[in-house]
Amino acid sequence: MLDIRPVTRDNWRELGKLQVRESQTHFVASNIISIAEAQFGGDYTETGHWDMFPHGIYEGEMPVGFLMYALNFECPKMQALIVRLMVDEKYQGRGYGFFAMKWIINNLYLNDRVIKVGISYEPDNVVARSLYIKCGFIEIGEKLGEEVLAVLRVR
Known about the structure:
The chain is of the alpha+beta class. Helix content is 23%, strand content 37%.
């Protein structure tokens, strides 16, 4: 059974061991870096300070991926940002990324303060782009840093 669980002191090490294929390492930060970043939040020149919420993706008791979203209700462009999504190299191609995206979108939809959700990705990450478009995100012709920015309106 697929499940999403918050990162805790009991599971952060096992989530930190997950990794993408060698050819994908330039697309996403390591989970350990992401978990550390979540402790302080993220500050982006374009959009301000974001509080981050890291989670593990599980198949039963087996960790298979990692996700992290962030909230900033002062940002007019988007109030939620999907900061990380990764599926371990051994579990890719099984629908875990799509499951995680739907979980994040549904979770953010429940928050009345979230109007738009953003996600950014490397321009050459065609697999991620395809997944995000499938989930309803639309590229808005802007970048977040060096990455393509896509937005989904949830209300």
